Amino acid sequence: MSKKRESVLKKNDEINLEITALTSQGSGVGRFNSMAVFVEGTAPGDLIIAHIILVKSNYAVGIIKKILKPSKHRIVCDCGAFSSCGGCSFRHIDYDEELAFKKQRVQDAFSRIGGIDTQVKEILTAGKVERYRNKAQYPVAMTPEGKTLIGFYAKKSHRVIDCRDCLLQPEEFETFLRIVEKWAAQYGVTIYNEKEKKGLLRHIYIRKGFKTGQIMICIVSTSRVVPKIEKLADELISSNVNIKSIVLNVNSEDTNVVLSTDCITLWGSGFIEDELCGLKFKISPLSFFQVNPEGAEILYKKAAEYAALSGEETLLDLYCGTGTIGLSMAKNAKRVIGVEIIPQAIEDAKENAKENGICNAEFFCDDASGAAKRISESGTKIDVIVLDPPRKGCSKDVIEAVTAMNPKRIVYVSCDPATLARDCAEFKKAGFETDEITAVDMFPRTTHVETVALLTYHRQS
Length: 461
Ligand code: SAH
Description:
Elements: H1 2-8, E1 14-22, E2 28-32, E3 35-39, E4 47-55, E5 59-69, H2 95-114, E6 120-125, E7 135-142, E8 148-153, E9 160-162, H3 173-187, E10 201-208, E11 215-221, H4 229-239, E12 243-250, E13 263-268, E14 272-276, E15 279-283, H5 293-307, E16 314-318, H6 324-329, E17 335-340, H7 343-355, E18 361-365, H8 368-378, E19 384-387, H9 396-404, E20 409-414, H10 417-429, E21 432-441, E22 450-457
Parallel strand pairs: 3-5, 6-21, 11-12, 16-17, 16-19, 17-18, 19-20
Antiparallel strand pairs: 1-2, 1-4, 2-3, 4-5, 7-8, 7-10, 8-9, 10-11, 12-13, 14-15, 20-22, 21-22
Helix pairs in contact: 2-10, 3-4, 8-9
S-adenosyl-L-homocysteine is lined by residues 288, 290, 319-321, 324-325, 339-342, 345, 367-368, 388-390.
């Protein structure tokens, strides 16, 4: 059968193809003689001529040669960098279709991976699909001809695509990029070359507090000694009154990690402030803060609804980061316990609690599974547990320790529907059913989707 398929499709063939679905990575897919053909930048319903660039035994990859009949969901792409930039996946599909795809992605994960038939209730969105991000890290590179590139990496690569005005970022960020470029050219500040590991300027990293308007600009350089850096600070400060901090981050390592831990404040306080769910948060260059704060508020509100706190409960916020979820629920809880593995995040969480006058929250730097086990064995009664693990989800140890605490409710927040569904299936084995699922679109135009699920114990009959 596979031999026959191979003979049907060859590299450089041009075929008529109807796109029928999107993969979880956002690529369109159609079938040719029952073989799946993936074509990026297509929309379900497109009829295209695909130029085949790769043929494997059970699938093929093509590129668009011509769109014969566009899908009714196709929209005119508004970004010149879309076909090469690794940022957005959906600038060619209308937002309603994108939301439908994301909701279905979560539903499919639950039914196919989790074997759970609970229906995804709805997909929530802040509605803002442009300029919703409050943070950007622009890599800087130079072409052999000496042209400076500032933008984003191409898909699955470290090739810098020049893109100054990304439609996901605040408009004023572009102005700061221009100022840095001009300054570097004027004072001969060299641009880092990843292959040769030479040059100074690596990244321009900008954050903005949407509620406060405060802006931080961080220059990532390979050395502490940067010529005329004070001139750059002067130029930036005089360009925008909302700039509160200018920081130099020194990263001389040969690494993919953008920031080192070595931050030097060049001007201002070294941090900015913003608000989330009515609470104040201090944001340092290295501290985690939700990149789409409006979306995060919607997510946290749904999580709070699922937690259904009455003021009498002890809430365990596992994987708490800088404490935002637990702190946003603290006023409705008797006690909040937060656990997180990164020491700096725990320091921030403690400070955030203090700054907001929250006295019923404690934070511990620990591994989730060890902490959950210890809390469970200590006999502390935990009523509600919020889980917000990284992409890989919870380990079996964590699931065991969490179920051993016998909480009234588990609120599971996840950025990966596949590991969420897998873990919910594990919880189900221990008697915790997935009662409700809500998807939240925190990252419009990308394939990423957040989900919050409510699990409660169902007595086995
Ligand atoms: N709840 C937070 C952060 C969620 S991101 C918020 O909404 O802002 C997931 C967090 O889990 C990260 O902060 C990461 O550092 C932490 N983490 C990863 N592995 C962990 C582990 N084994 N134990 C505890 N925390 C962990």
